[in-house]
Design goal:
With 221 residues, the chain is of the alpha/beta class. The protein is built from three helices and eleven strands. The strands form two sheets. Strands 1, 2, 6, 7, 8, 9, 10 and 11 form an eight-stranded mixed β-sheet that branches. It has a three-stranded mixed β-sheet with strand order 4-3-5, with no helix packed on it. A hairpin with a 2-residue loop joins β7 and β8. α2 packs across α3. The chain is globular and about 50 Å long.
Length: 221
């Protein structure tokens, strides 16, 4: 059983992280159900375990928080749906790479509810959107923008941290970092793509597609 919780307003990062880790520990101990939290944070940058100092372009713009999840620098702020996933990976194949792939498939399926073509790319964790409306890349390929980032940590086979999906954040706030260490591509959001999608709309899409992706039983197949 997965318990879904919506946290209203802007959730303070440090307090939310502590509560998330406590819940993950309780799940590992068998004293709490699995959980998914849907929330937003105030503007801040987080540095994952692979973050490079050169990718923090404007260190004084927002608070910078070192975190234990995988990945590099990311931005969190209003208008971005944060999805913290505290799930038992043993129930889902006990394969971390496949679990991450299942989370990516989940985001892609949720975006498809709005006719958005989300895609994954080798060597680039997260979900990308082709932008044929933009100038092509120097190599002639179609431009791509990132719409969702992913970074998780596994402890005692329970995941925590999770996914961020851009609904309507201030995309200018990403300028203070090199998002996820990738300089050649931009970022986008559902509203930037011309879609009047609300947080509630995205939450409904995430809940509708969870069972067929992350909880499909063969999600690591």
């Amino acid at each position: 059983m997965v318990e879904w919780t919506h946290l209203p307003g802007l959730s303070p990062y440090a307090e939310t992280l502590a509560a998330m880790e406590a819940r993950a520990n309780a799940i590992a101990a068998g004293t709490a159900d699995e959980a998914i939290w849907l929330l937003e944070h105030p503007p801040l940058y987080t540095a994952g375990t692979s973050a490079r100092a050169a990718d923090l372009v404007d260190p004084d713009r927002f608070p910078v928080i070192q975190v234990g999840r995988g990945g590099q620098y990311t931005y969190h702020g209003p208008g971005q749906r944060i999805v913290y996933v505290m799930l038992d990976v043993r129930k889902r194949g006990q394969d971390v790479r496949c679990f991450v792939r299942a989370l990516e498939k989940w985001v892609i399926a949720a975006l498809a509810e709005f006719n958005v073509q989300g895609e994954i790319r080798p060597g680039r964790v997260g979900v990308w959107v082709p932008r044929p409306d933009k100038p092509r890349m120097l190599d002639g390929s179609v431009a791509e923008d990132k719409i969702a980032a992913l970074g998780i940590k596994i402890r005692k086979w329970v995941s925590f941290h999770g996914i961020s999906i851009n609904v309507e954040p201030d995309l200018g706030h990403f300028d203070g970092i090199v998002p996820c260490g990738i300089r050649d591509h931009g970022v986008t959001s559902l509203v930037d793509l011309g879609l009047p999608v609300t947080m509630a709309d995205l939450d409904a899409a995430l809940m509708a597609t969870f069972a067929q992706t992350v909880d499909a039983g063969n999600s690591c197949g």
